[in-house]
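We treat protein structure as text, and this decision shapes the records that our systems exchange. Such a record has a labelled line for the sequence and another for the backbone structure tokens. The record that follows is passed on verbatim for readers who wish to inspect the format:
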Amino acid sequence: MRRPGVYVAEMASTVTQRRRKRLSAGPRPWHHLRAPEAPARFRGPGQPTAVVGHMGAPAVAPPNSPEGFLAAHRLGADGIELDLVAVRGGSVVVAHDEGVVAATTDVLPLDELENLLASPPLSATPVLLDVKSGGIERAIAAALTGARLTPRAIISTTDPRVLRALRFASPGATRSQTFPRSRRDPQRSTFSRRFAELRRPFTRALMPLIVRRAVHRHGLAAVTVNHQLVTPALAKMLRERGVELIVWTVDDHDEARRMLDLDVDVIITNDPAAILQARSEHLAREHGAHASTAASADRT
């Protein structure tokens, strides 16, 4: 008969092995999803980090509005990000959440968004569609086809169920999962804000494992990660796998420099002009460093 201490140790070992097996990537089951063969990308080979306007350009125009999208394009942004949410009656509109829809009647319907993105000057602009509601996947798939958006659109969401539904509604669409997945706003109270701050270092340490598992399970060609959770290990892991790293939402100049030093693929920002300036400064520093290295090599 085994002693109680030995039995407890064996049980603990078994539980640990099960957890490791659950978290490891492992072989992809038949029902897991694969990325499209030619995914849409904001950043092409050899190009610098792309700068994408968050909900257009809220620093100079109303968010999620035609004026905002056109302003982002005019400022030189490499793409635009916008939010899609379902409203009563089953229709889809461009808005951050249902609260925004309830507070105003000035929202952009999905069919008008199709016309806007299919017409100059936005007819070739890459787009990130942030899906806030489930059950609208077929409407999004129809919009991708109607505006010929599939080759230049990435669909992102926090909900894995939406990712799976999109895979079957629009097999050729490029999918991204948004991290972290928070059911409640961490800024709603002092306690929740402090708790999020205490938990952040642990979340940062686990992000490479969490994201790698999601990429494998959902066939992601891109991931959309809050800038506070982006680390060198995460950026390196995604670069090795050819997965585009989209970072949200960066408005601070020093944080933009950190993201540029990590060579992330996309920076989403409320102020495209400021982050484009930071990118120009970063490229100038890199060019100066390369020139200095070449001059030193010539002297030796």
